Amino acid sequence: MSYPATRMRRRRQAPWMREMLREHRLHPSDFIWPLFLCEGKNETQAIGSLRGVSRFSIDLIVERAREAAAAGIPAIALFPNTADKDRSETAAEALNPDNLICRAVRSVKEAGVEIGVMTDVALDPYTSHGHDGLLAEDGSVDNDATVEILARQALVQAEAGADIVAPSDMMDGRIGAIRDTLEDAGRHNTAIMAYAAKYASSLYGPFREAVGSGDRLKGDKRGYQMDPANGREALEEVELDLAEGADFVMVKPGMLYLDVIARVADQFDAPLFAYMTSGEYAMVEEAAAAGAGDRDKMLMEALTAFKRAGCTGILSYHALEVAHSL
Ligand code: PBG
């Protein structure tokens, strides 16, 4: 037998051969597009630390939703920047059926845009202290008191027309409580995307600027979000959320947690999403701006890696641009 018997490079010799053998490719339907909301009309507000991403008033959000649907993106995810006067210790605004996010959902639905609308279930856009839940006497986040509000918040959003409610708070037991509340109210078709393995990451800074919670935040979120050093624990989190009734699970952040994504994909059959967070968006954009590489190539490589790791879909601020380019 001549040496070498197997030449791996034979498979890479021409574009058609590489195309034929490619294992993973991106498609517009892989994406969920996160969008930031602000009050006002015809209002666009740049977000300093998130180059190229803006907050939009509801009228413009409806336009963005139309563009996304036309580009083949199946769903958008909404995040509100709540007016300062509506933030409080008790996060009461989260339960207001006419709050910013509920009005936005209703507007997208009333406009007849054929796109899934996902809402963020968590209290950080509504609390005066920027935490995802209510504070106990000792300053820690009170799990069970928070879960009670989250379940009501999810129902308020579902009643506004949200197709998917997505708890991003990491309280224990919230998926089960939300599922029970939705079922009791007859909302059998409202899906739950659980931020199942969400880490206490340093990559959320630009997002916190976008929703206006960053400057308020006292302390950190390590008492509820996961320790970035833990991998196995993510499997426990996913298992619990699925057992409590989550339809889909998420790992967040994504680029630095591809090992976690791969392990979850290996062990569970449920649809799996990853969030390319604001800090990861900035990693690509700022590296490109500094001349460290070709921006489009870095971006496509990063997004393709999510698919290779085993994701069903990706939440990405780049979604519309990438859907157009595919
Ligand atoms: C908060 C929430 C955060 C993100 C989504 N929901 C930030 C946080 O947990 O502090 C981060 C998203 C991103 O960085 O793009 N409920």
List the defining traits of the structure above.
326 residues; alpha/beta; binds ligand PBG
Task: Characterise this structure.
This protein is of the alpha/beta class and 326 residues long. It has one domain (24-325): TIM Barrel, CATH 3.20.20. It contains eleven helices and ten strands. It has helices at residues 15-21, 58-70, 100-110, 143-160, 174-184, 205-211, 232-243, 258-267, 278-289, 295-309, 319-325; strands spanning 31-37, 44-46, 54-56, 75-80, 116-121, 164-167, 191-198, 248-252, 272-276, 313-316. It has an eight-stranded parallel barrel, surrounded by nine helices. Helix 5 links the parallel strand 6 and strand 7. The longest helix is centred in the middle third of the chain and has 18 residues, at 143-160. It binds ligand PBG. Ligand PBG binds at residues 120, 122, 124, 132, 168-169, 204, 207-208, 221, 277-279.
Quick overview:
The chain has 326 residues and is α/β, with parallel strands linked by helices.
How many β-strand runs?
10
Q: Could you say what the CATH architecture is?
A: Alpha-Beta Barrel
Task: Classify the beta-strand content into a percent band.
Answer: 15-25%
At the first level of CATH, the class is Alpha Beta
Main sheet, how many strands, which sense, barrel?
8 strands, parallel, barrel
The total count of helices amounts to 11
CATH topology label: TIM Barrel
Instruction: Walk across the major sheet and give the strand order.
Output: 1-4-5-6-7-8-9-10
Q: What is the CATH superfamily classification?
A: Aldolase class I
**H/E series, N to C?**
HEEEHEHEHEHEHHEHEHHEH
In terms of per-residue confidence, which ranges show pLDDT below 50 for 5 or more consecutive residues? none
Which descriptor suits the 3D outline? Answer: globular
Q: How far apart are the first and last residues' alpha carbons, in Å?
A: 44 Å
What are the distinct ligands in this entry?
Answer: ligand PBG
What is the domain total for the residues?
1
Averaging pLDDT over every residue, what do you get? 97
